[in-house]
Please model this.
Amino acid sequence: MISLYRIPGVAASIALVLYVLLMLLALNGLNITLTLPGVAGIVLSIGMAVDANVIIFTRIKEEIAKGKTVRSSIKIGFEKALSAIVDGNVTTLLAAAVLYFIGSGTVKGFATTLAIGIILSMFTALVVTKFVLNALFALGLDNEKLYGAAKEYKVRNYVGNFKKFAAGSLVVILIGFAIMGYNKVSGNDILNFGLDFKGGTSTSVVMKEECTDELKVKVSNAVENLLGETPVVSEVSGENTYVIKTNNLTSDKRAELETMFTEQFGVAQDSITSEAISATVSNEMKTDAVKAVLIATVCMLLYIWIRFKDIRFGSSAVIALLHDVLIVLTVYAVVRIAVGNTFIACMLTIVGYSINATIVIFDR
Model:
């Protein structure tokens, strides 16, 4: 921010530090339990706080390039950027509200941190950044060179090449659906669902030697070679014990695993225990998440339609949002990335950020 926008970048950095402090105070004061999607909500709101500053500073640079004074450019820049910032944040806040009231579990955690983050990011961008920027200007930092000026950029005909880009995206998305269909026909899951979605087997092993990073890698590799899958290996704090989580194992496979530990690592057989673990993401949670996202999408469509007085704005924003989600879904299907709680965090972050970027373009 500082390298691109100079003095305004300094003001933004100060405001963002205050934003993080306020966010921590809010989480502590409201006693909110952080989940992984909850952390994603915080990261997304930080991104939106930065976005708001970028919109403001770009407007300021444009005004300076038109020959306005720095003081006047700062005033006009904040005024012109206001509508884009408010529209983008209100749209995402609508989505957060729906996710909170209809979603459950980790989805609700994401919605909570996102909503708090949006409110605080708007405050820091529109109030704190403005105050700090005016204070720095009053201290004598009023040279135009310290605020930058808009540059001429090479115009690229993105809209004129719409059919080519749309066809490319459509091909990628169809490949994703084709691979998911192939996985289903082959008797596999359409996506590589992890333990969070399917459950599995948890094996606890008391090691003879001290647990180290090197030993952890050896254990992981040995289990992978035996079972043909990458396990989740975690260490029990204060004990020489590893907990190895894998897909559901038959009694024969559990016996093979125990034999491997006794032969390769010298572990006593009575130091190995196995148990079935259930999925942390229930069917109800998945249904609630899908329902919440669909309702949130409809609410965003209606808001954008009313705000810009044309249904084409709302529908195109939703199509762009759907496009972004499907492209990432294709990557998960093709590369076979494990689908767990991180997947939910990823998709919800895309829903929040994609619509915000689209709103900025519509405001222009």
